[in-house]
Amino acid sequence: MQVQELPTDPQAIRELIRLGKYDGVTGGLAPGYVQANLVILPKSLAFDFLLFCQRNPRPCPILEVLDAGKPEPVLTTPGADIRTDIPKYRIFRDGELYEEVTDINGFWRDDLVTFLLGCSFTFESAMIDAGIPLRHWETGKNVTMFITNMSTTPAGVFSGPMVVSMRPIHHQQIVRAVQVTSRFPGAHGAPIHVDNSKAIGIDNIELPDYGDPTEFKDGEVPVFWACGVTPQAVAIKSKPSLMITHSPGHMFVTDMKDSALAAL
Amino acid sequence: MQVQELPTDPQAIRELIRLGKYDGVTGGLAPGYVQANLVILPKSLAFDFLLFCQRNPRPCPILEVLDAGKPEPVLTTPGADIRTDIPKYRIFRDGELYEEVTDINGFWRDDLVTFLLGCSFTFESAMIDAGIPLRHWETGKNVTMFITNMSTTPAGVFSGPMVVSMRPIHHQQIVRAVQVTSRFPGAHGAPIHVDNSKAIGIDNIELPDYGDPTEFKDGEVPVFWACGVTPQAVAIKSKPSLMITHSPGHMFVTDMKDSALAAL
Prior knowledge:
2 copies of one chain form a homodimer. In chain A, about 20% of the residues lie in helices and about 25% in strands. By secondary structure, chain A is of the alpha+beta class. The first copy, chain A, folds into 2 domains: about 140 residues, 3-Layer(aba) Sandwich (PSTPO5379-like), CATH 3.40.1640; about 110 residues, PSTPO5379-like fold. In chain A, the strands form 2 sheets. In chain A, strands 1, 2, 3, 4, 5, 10 and 11 form a 7-stranded antiparallel β-sheet that branches. Chain A has a 4-stranded antiparallel β-sheet with strand order 6-7-9-8. Chain A is globular, with a radius of gyration of 18 Å. Chain A starts with 9 loop residues before the first helix and ends in a 7-residue tail after the last strand.
């Protein structure tokens, strides 16, 4: 099924995914609705991970945490099932990628705690609406990401560097880009850093650690936002016996409106 | 020692408290610095309580959660000791008030997790600065508080009604009061409700559940904010074997500036 044939309301999209009729990426689907990063961990690690997110709200903005063993996001997306409603999942065992699957019924346990974290799609839509073009949207590439020299604030077994996404912004639009994204603290919020990539430990702006490189045009400055890859990278480092995430780009489409995430 | 003789910087105030030279209320001390509500619970309850706070950010705005057994708030107030730097504590055993003490060294355990939660002093200072008078400040009374018919979002063993504080605001200043307090989501943020107290289960506005009653003047409307009494009331209901809080009005004076809590 092609993206352009898909319905635009989140419930219908999740139903197609649940029935196995769509397993592609979710960027651009259900415009106006929040999409979420997924991290599932055993209960024994849940306090430390929740505390890690609380201490690092920019890379880890929590949308909802489900009670242990519960697969329904009753607060943001009642009726959905986190085990079947995401197009593609990654299963990690002891910190190693073990399998990529389209449902996780076979891996579900009563002690699993599901974390839904905000995603940059929300603030990117707001930037587009505000007339700030996004190179990776225009070119159909993945956003450029770097591991920085900025430490996250550790919590229990979790620690590690902050991962950032980078977007080239024309210098005349930097102020507007800060304003627009500041309104969405639930989706990484304001930039973490502007310009001077060396100051945050990025030696070569053309060699990203994740995603695709980005070409700069005249007058453009690199602007950096905290990235949802951070919590996954940090969680994997602790080598949990079992950890389940979405596959990159294959997000959970919630029933929450982008506007519900907007601050003032 | 009288309040007016006290130093104005938070570190010096905490030192006096630690040395047993001051055990009074903290309202008005260290102007411009954030004061915090204290809840200490055994680790076995910490995930549920952290999740409760995450799901109920208006009554339970988290400033810092300390690692189990650690008494130093390294993020907001490095160098302080949560066991000695608060003027007065309440010890609860199995949900019953057991003792009121001026330090908790004798109760400290390696499995205790400390939660510091935002306090209305921060947004009240901002209201005063914005020219919105506060009756209970003018009259030297305690703020008026009610148990509402609004449920908090439960998490694990924690659930219960939301407690609100009420301030009479002149109808010409309601919009400004919403704007000013909205900037401080870390200190309960915007009002939860304006006017029509019956709609949130308050039958008699002159009979508060906690604090002192407030007299209304012509043109004033009751405006309600989520209250930090909520997490304490909810936590006590679960009858934890041990729970430690500050005594009402005897807050933890942090090194964090009020301005650091301000959103946009």
